[in-house]
Each structure stands twice: as C-alpha cells, then as structure tokens.
Structure to design on (1228 residues):
C-alpha cells in the first residue's frame, strides 16, 4: 500500500464513498422533503449518479440532468452577454422608414431602450419595433423586406459599457 | 380537383393535424399558423410549412386576425381553414379573408353573421318551416311582460341570461309562484356575472336529447345531409360522448330532422359543412342553432358514411360541386366518440395541463384516435383541455360501446399532475340509463331548480 | 356469446395485441405467453395476465408446445389462439391442445394436416372442382420422367425444389433446350442448399397475380367468403402491399374465386378463418394453397366488410354459429395494407433490429395501424422484422393510395441503426404499373431465368 | 505479479470491488430510507453500476447491466454474492421427489454444481432442476407446488466458503 497506484486507488475509493454518500443523502433529502412521495429521483455528480424511482408516484423530482456541472458555473446562461431584439408580431421587416432612406440603426450604433430600430408591416399597417434594452448593435439578423415570424430575433445588442 | 395549391390552417391541436392530413392526401400544401406554445406540436411537424404568429395567449395569436392573414399572404395560401373555435365562426374574420383575396373555408360572411345571431337564426328557421322552442326569442323586461310571456310559453320554462352561455346564468321554473323570484334572481346573477342583466324565456324540456344533423352544401345548389348525431351526454354543456345514429330515435323523427336541416341550409343560402342542432323529446323536436364550422364530433359521421368531411369542405370552398349525392350517402353501423380531456375529476374537472410522460393511445380495428399531443409533450394551459378523441365503429351499438370501453381501458396517459376524464367516460358507458339509451342532457348535470 | 372465460394468446407482436383487443371487447380474459425478449411488449401490457414461457429463441418459447400448453393450463385458459407463424399451422400442436382439453382456435388437426401437405391439398382441391396449376404435384426423378412431365405441362414451366421455399430453389424454363440443364442445376443447388435434391415441375405463369379469398366456416355447416385480397406486390415471396378488391380483376373471375374457396372449404371440412390462395392471369385461375390461420393482411378485409375476423374465429372455436350470412357480407370501398419492416434497403433488406428512439405511427380518418412495438422499445433480433401494418380505407383506389402515401409520409420511426421499408413502399405506391394495376408478382423480383 | 501492470490490475480490481460494495451499500441505504419501497434503484460510479428493480412489489435484484465494466471488474455481478437457481422452463415447482418425501434441499444445505435441487413439472413430465453453481442454500423463493415462469428465481445460494 505504499506505491502510488494503491494510494490513488485508496483515494479514489474514499472519493467514491464520499461522493456516493453525498448523492444518497441528496436522494433521501429530496424524497423526504418532497410534498408527496416522488416517482423518480436522479442525482449525478461527475461520473457518479444515483437514481431512484417509485411505483406510480405522482410528482417527479429530478436533481441534475444530463451533464450539469453542479458547483462550477454559477451563471450557466451568462456565456453570451448579447441580447436579441425580437419581432413583436408576424410580418415584413423593414430597416428604413421608407424606400431609399437610411436605416434606423446600423451595426456599431448605440441604441437606447425604447428607441425605434425597425418597422414590421402586417396587414398594410406599419408597426414600430423598439429596442427593449439599451446597447450597441453588433449584428442585424434579418435582411430588409424579409418576412419574420413572431418572436424572431432581428438584431443582437451588446451591453453598451464594460466588456 | 380543387384550385388550391396552399391552404393555411388557422388552428391548433388535433383539428389542425386533421386538416393537414386531408390536405396532404389532396396534394395541397399545408401551412400551420402556430403560437409559441405549439412550436413542437404534431400539426406543425406534419405540415409542409409553418409560421409562428404570436405568443401563447390566443388573443394575440389564434384569435388575432391580422397575424393569421399575414401568415396566409406570406406563404402564398389561397384559402384559410379555421377549424373550430377561435376565428371559425367570426363573420368579421371571414370578411377580412375575402378582402385580402383569401377563401375562407366556411359559409359566406353574411350567412354566418345572420346564423350566429341566435334570435335572428331562430326567426329565419321558423320562417323556413322548422319548429322552434316556444320562447320570447328576444330579451324581456318588466314583470308584466314576463308574466305574459310565461303564460304564452307554458311551464316548465327556463330563464336564460342573454349574455350567458356554457350552462351558466339559467334558472328552471316549474311552478307559477316561482316565476318572478326566478326572474329577479337570474337578472341579479347575470348583472354580477356578465355585467348585462337582460334575460329571455324559453320552454324547458325536462327529458330532452341533443340531436344534430350534419349537412354539406356546395355553391351549385346541392345540399345533402349525412345523418344525425346524438350529443346528449354533456357536462356543463360540454359534450363528452357523441354517437350516430341517435339511439332510440324514431326513424320518422330522424328523417324529419334531416329534412329540416336540409331545408334550413337551403333557405339560409348555406355553403360548406354545417350542423343543425335540435332538441328532441319523443316525437317533439325544436331547432336550437346552426354551427357554421366543422365540429369536434365530425368523425362519428365520417365513420358511418365513409366521407371525409374536411375534404368536402375544401372541395366546396374551391367552388367545386359536392362529391356525393344524397342517394350515395348510406350510413352504416354505429359510431361513438369520446372526448378525453386533461381534467381532474377530483378537483371539479379543473383542467390540469402538464407534461405527458406516457401517452399511448389505443388502436386496432375500427378504432380511430385524433389527437394533437404526443408522449413528452407539455399540454399548454392556454387552450382547451382536449387530449384526444377516441372514435369507434361497430355493426351495432352494443358492439360499439364494448369497443369503446376496451379502447379507453387501453389508453395510457400519465405525467406529473396529469388526470383525464377516462374514468368518467367509462362510468358513462356503464350507466344503465345510457346503455338503454334513456339518458337525456341532464345525465351528468341535474339542472338547478328555483325554489 | 362464447363459452370462453380465458384465452391463451400463443404469439407475440402486433397479432398478439390484436387478439388481446378482441378478447377484451368480448369480455374474455386474455393471457399472453411471452419470451424474455417480449417482457415489456404492448401485448403483455394490454393482456389481463401473462406467463413467461421461455427465452428469446423461438424454439424454446413460441415454438415450444409444452411451455405454451403449460401456460394455458396454469392460467385456466379454455382455448389457445395461435396467431400466425410459430405453432399456428402445426397439426401436432392442435392435437396436443385437444389432448389437454384445450380448444385450438383453428381448423381440426386432421383437416390442418391434410391441407398443410401441399401435394395432398392440391389433389383434394382438384377433386373438389378447383382448377390447379398443371404440374407434377409430386417430385419427379430421371430424365425421361422430366421430359414427359414437361411435355404434358407445357412451357414456360418452373422447376421447384421440394424442400425449397421463400422463393429459393426455383428455375424458370422457357425453351425446350433449357429443360434438362435446368433440371440438373436446380437439383444440384437443392442438394447443396437444402440437403434434399427432390424437385417438381409446375406450369409457370409469366404475368400472374396473387389473389386470395378469405373464408369463415363454422361447425354448423355455414361457410361464407369475405371477398378477395390481391397480394401481388412481393419481395422474395414476402408480401409488402395487400389490397381489396383485387384491382383490375374481372368481376366474374372474382366471383369464381370466391365460389372455389367456399367449395374447397366445404369439401375439406374446414372450420374457422382460412385463406384460399390462387394465381390469376387474365381469366385463368389456379389454386395454390390454403392458409389455415389468420393472416397478416386480414385487416384489409375487416376494413371493407366491418367484420372483426378474430371475433369470428373465437366464436367459431367456441362452437357458436357464424354471426353473418353470405348475404350480410357487403364489402365496400377499397382497403390497402402496407407492411413496414425494420429492414435496411441499402443492405439488401437485411433486418435491422434496434432501439426505437422515435416511433409515432400515422393516424386519422380511415387509417389503422397495427403494431406491437412502441417508442423506446428495442426490436428483438430473434423474430421477423415487421414493425407495423398500415391499413387505409377509401371509397376508391386512387383515394386509398393517396391516403396510404400520406400515412407513410407521416410515419416517424428512428433509432440507432434503424431503417424501414417505408421508402420502398412509397416507391411501389408511385409505380405506374402498380397505379394502373398492371403489376404482377414479379414487380420487385424479376424471376431468374435459366440460360 | 511483480511488474507494475499486474499490480495496477490487481489494485484496479480491488478498487472496483470496493466501489461496487459502496454502490450496493448505497442502494440498500436508499431502499431502507425511502418513504415507499422503490421500484428501481440505480447507482453508478464511473464505469461500475448497480441497478435494483422491484417490479410490482416482488423484488428482483440485478447487478450491473448496460455498461459492464470493460477491463476493470471480472465479475460485474459481484455486487451480491448470492446466486439464484432459476427455472429452466415454465411449469409447477416441486421441492420433493414425491408426496410425503423430504425436500431435495433445505436452507443451510451445501449443494454442488449439477446437484438436483427441485423438479419442475410441465405437461406431466418431470424436469430435473440442477444447481448450476455450488453454494449454500440461503433462501427458498417459491413454495412447493407453485407455478413458476421460465427463468424465475427458485433458490438463493451463497458462496460455500469465504464470507
């Protein structure tokens, strides 16, 4: 038990015990804390996972899913600071107030929340599209006069400061 | 066959998929207009194209005409199939379609406008020779008018809030001394409930059955009926079980109903698929209303006649004549439909949307299931709670009821918090009154009496 | 109605579920005997009870009579429904059932024994007045005998290995000078392939169609037919598409086939549901064989007649008379079935079992899907590769083919390594010969010629 | 056994055994602590896994399945040392050679591989059931004259020595 291999093995074993004890405690905690007996509990830590199912249980409590790094990243969605300005209705997207005129906004422009950035025409009515947040235009996602669906991203804005 | 290359389906759920299927068979391109809640729906998957027209809230998507029209125009659709519910019976929407060069799959806007005004429809149909329920037709005000109307109509009668619906705002009056207090309390309740205290009076039929006749009418003067459906099993005016033929209905009465429906459709200048609803008590019948759209229970008629009603709708809308003459329509056997809703019987049938961890509908000989959901789907809370329609056919009623019960037993639906009406439906199927076809519309909802 | 409380279903897959469904409708308790590979099958789930009778290998489970009998006796079953394949056409098994006091759902063992001997069946049917293919009936040996037989039969003829089957061990002879070399090579191939070099000769019909007639015969002397099915679309003798009525079949020929089938069933003392297979070329017809069981393609007949064939099987087996007389059978419209197999068209249609990550069969009006699999199921490699049968009905053939193609487009099947025959089926549906009903059994398998 | 490779292998085997024991303990802990009898418990650590299922109340214990430890553990089923003697066919289970006679084996008996432990009657034929491994009978799972399915566990045997 003095060579490095067996030390590693021992450490691994200890790690396994600790990790699994944690997992089991989690499962038991979840099962006990749930308002009704759960039908399935699944907890995973790295390569270790514990999963419990109950027959015909009503609620489902799943702890962790496919690959959740539990302690590493506090903000899973924070990877991209950019925000989309989306289409408030289905219609045709126009970047300019009229034919031959210059676009409301261009890449690199700074826009304020509430500023008009485009028009969407639906049923021959012109609907103003406003930025719902301030920021710098980093990308125009739809070409002029193209049809857009409801909620389709039109522009990407980056935060005005910081970076 | 039809002149349409592309049809916009302005609906969701099972009926949107239903329309997509017939379009595909007819080699018509289908485009489904959908809300964000229906992004992964079966109809969207099955359609040739789709347009996201708005958020989950129907008033900004399925009920929002500009978004629907925009989707139709953008995708090159020549026609709009409205399904049922939402914009399907909105004459203004039909009008907007026409103004935008789109064929609305349904009757002409002016026909729809007249028939959707219940008082006007009642008058029109009475003039066309259809029997109507004795009643005031219009709202009545003042004790003298109420007493006079009641004397003319006779007892029992029902006082209905003009703004009511879905079984709310109604009181049954059986004795003369109940009349005025019922009038006062119904008005008061209507004022509070609907902000509108107008009420009208109608004869109340104690043991009535709800029987409706399916008609098809083209733009070339042909009107045919496809037989009747009995939809008497209701819970708060929601149909649960529909069947054809109407069990226990005297053949001469069934024939009269069909003739009334054809005469009514003719006199109204109706085109498309439509349904004439009647109350029936023994050999007494009374017209109630016309539904100017495809109905949830249309598969019952399809199963007995072999006719694809959506195909006929599209054919008629494209200006072509009906594919069948009256003598070609030979319904056979018995068809029954049960509506399986996501509702909790233990919580007064409150809708219970949620994720369907398991959803395996029944199948097999003479069993059809129309559904817009699938395993893994999360039933949205914004829409009605219909999960699936189970339709069976058999040579006779006993066989059809056994088959239906067997199909319902086979249905596997589960998910966190998901409950269905399957057990209620199975109780109805086992009910002796129902089995003997002695049931009425009050099988599940004994009507509240005054006094 | 029937005397059975409990029926043992001695089969798997879609047909086991099919039988369970009818039992449930008839209020008969169903018990499914299953192998370890089918532990979570839809049939096991749907049945009232189940018994694990053996391992995946069929010779120790579905084909192992003692295990099946044991399961039946233990669960109090009075009858055994054998489905198709496995023990369904084994006269010994029917005999064992009888000796154990169990009703075998099928014809009497001695009838089955005679009809399953193809040479004997051919002789019996010829005596009953049915036309048979000119041929030797029995194996022939020696050049003189071969030449004499060929002279009597005429050309073209086909030399078949007695031990062959499934399209293997056959050679077509079109010219007299090919006869002896074909005889030698077929014998040699048969010796190597089957360890049995006996061959027989039969007239070869160049442009034949495979048409079969469904019959029902009870123990009280009633025999009815339910019309014919055309099963000419085959790949290596495996049926892919079946339809009814047989397209392009002259009505007088169809009538003759039906009469032959009824006469044949009568003369053989047949009871239960059975199928008489014929080759048809123009107005020439020839009896081939009788199938003494329910067939894969029976739903085609159910869709046109409204008759539940499994119910009739159980009714007849219980000793009751048929529920229908010949004049009650009025087939209508056109029904088509496509078999969707888990096979890889790019690897010569090798079966490709695997896990079904996605399995959403089509549905809708006049579409029926019989399947024993479900999403998440791992298709076992031990059994045939049938995933699902898609059956459609329509008023006419064009409508039925359009509906079938639409249904096949809707079918969603995927999983690691899973391939299906859907694309092949859709190619058949689009084939001009098939659409015009000019196709023959060699549509997909041009027959190998000698020389 | 002196070169590092075989030492590593031995250690790995030891580690795997320890890990599996831990896993099994975890499962037992979960099952014991659960508010209802679970229908399935699955514990995994790295490539080793243990899974327990209780279909409809009748417990069936399976050790390891989908991803058997490829090189590490020579005995993936070692989670539970007990081995079941299973029914080789469907039929009626008999513990004695005939009515009134004493059972072939009793709890506590030591059986040798190939020794007859029961009879299964099917179609009036008496089929001999043999132990496919040696061991001590720790449990008889089916009562005399009861029907058994194919592959149904009949007896539990523990390893004859060790422990």
């Amino acid at each position: 038990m003095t060579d490095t291999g067996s030390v590693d093995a021992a450490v691994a074993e200890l790690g396994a015990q600790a990790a699994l004890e944690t997992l089991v405690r989690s499962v038991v905690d979840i099962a006990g804390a749930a308002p009704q007996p759960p039908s399935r509990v699944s907890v995973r830590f790295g390569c270790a996972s514990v999963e419990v199912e109950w027959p015909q249980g009503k609620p489902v409590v799943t702890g962790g899913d496919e690959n959740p790094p539990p302690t590493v990243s506090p903000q899973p969605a924070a990877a991209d600071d950019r925000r989309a300005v989306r289409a408030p209705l289905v219609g045709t997207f126009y970047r300019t107030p009229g034919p031959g005129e210059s676009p409301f906004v261009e890449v690199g422009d700074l826009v304020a929340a509430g500023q008009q950035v485009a028009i969407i025409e639906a049923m021959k009515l012109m609907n103003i599209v406003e930025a719902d947040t301030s920021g710098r235009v980093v990308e125009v996602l739809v070409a002029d006069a193209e049809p857009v669906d409801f909620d389709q991203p039109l522009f990407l804005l980056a935060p005005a400061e910081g970076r | 066959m039809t002149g349409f290359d592309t049809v916009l389906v302005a609906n969701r759920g099972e009926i949107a998929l239903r329309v997509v299927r017939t379009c595909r068979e007819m080699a018509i391109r289908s485009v489904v207009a959908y809300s964000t809640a229906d992004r992964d729906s079966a109809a969207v998957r099955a359609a040739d194209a789709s347009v996201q027209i708005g958020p989950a809230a129907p008033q900004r998507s399925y009920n929002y005409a500009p978004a629907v029209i925009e989707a139709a125009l953008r995708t090159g659709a020549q026609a709009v199939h409205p399904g049922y519910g939402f914009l399907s019976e909105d004459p203004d929407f039909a009008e907007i379609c026409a103004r935008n060069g789109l064929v609305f799959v349904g009757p002409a806007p002016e026909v729809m406008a007249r028939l959707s005004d219940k008082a006007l429809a009642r008058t029109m149909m009475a003039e066309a020779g259809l029997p109507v329920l004795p009643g005031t037709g219009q709202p009545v005000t003042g004790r003298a008018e109420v007493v006079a109307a009641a004397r003319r109509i006779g007892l029992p009668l029902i006082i209905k809030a003009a703004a009511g619906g879905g079984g709310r705002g109604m009181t049954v009056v059986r004795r003369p001394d109940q009349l005025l207090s019922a009038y006062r309390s119904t008005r008061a309740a209507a004022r509070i409930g609907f902000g509108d205290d107008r009420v009208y009076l109608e004869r109340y039929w104690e043991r009535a059955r709800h029987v409706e006749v399916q008609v098809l009418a083209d733009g070339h003067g042909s009107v045919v009926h496809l037989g009747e459906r009995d939809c008497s099993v209701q819970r708060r005016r929601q149909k649960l079980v529909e069947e054809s033929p109407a069990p226990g209905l005297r053949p001469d009465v069934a024939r009269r109903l069909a003739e009334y429906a054809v005469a009514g459709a003719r006199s109204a200048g109706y085109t498309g698929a439509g349904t004439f609803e009647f109350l029936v008590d023994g050999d007494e019948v009374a017209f109630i209303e016309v539904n100017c759209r495809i109905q949830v229970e249309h598969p019952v008629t399809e199963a007995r006649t072999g006719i694809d009603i959506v195909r006929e709708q599209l054919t008629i809308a494209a200006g072509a004549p009906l594919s069948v003459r009256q003598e070609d329509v030979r319904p056979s056997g018995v068809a029954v439909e049960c509506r399986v809703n996501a509702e909790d019987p233990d919580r007064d049938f409150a809708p219970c949307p949620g994720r369907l961890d398991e959803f395996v509908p029944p199948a097999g000989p003479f069993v059809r299931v129309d559904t817009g959901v699938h395993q893994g789907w999360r039933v949205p809370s914004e829409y009605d709670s219909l999960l699936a329609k189970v339709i069976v056919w058999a040579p006779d009623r006993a066989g059809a009821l056994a088959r239906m019960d067997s199909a319902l037993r086979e249905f596997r639906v589960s998910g966190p918090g998901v409950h269905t009406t399957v057990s209620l439906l199975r109780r109805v199927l086992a009910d002796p009154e129902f089995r003997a076809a002695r049931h009425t519309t009050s099988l599940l909802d004994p009507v509240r009496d005054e006094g």
Summary: Chains A and C do not touch (no CB pair under 8 Å). Chain A has a mean pLDDT of 68. Chain A has two domains: 4-53, 80-158. Residues 4-53 of chain A form one domain.
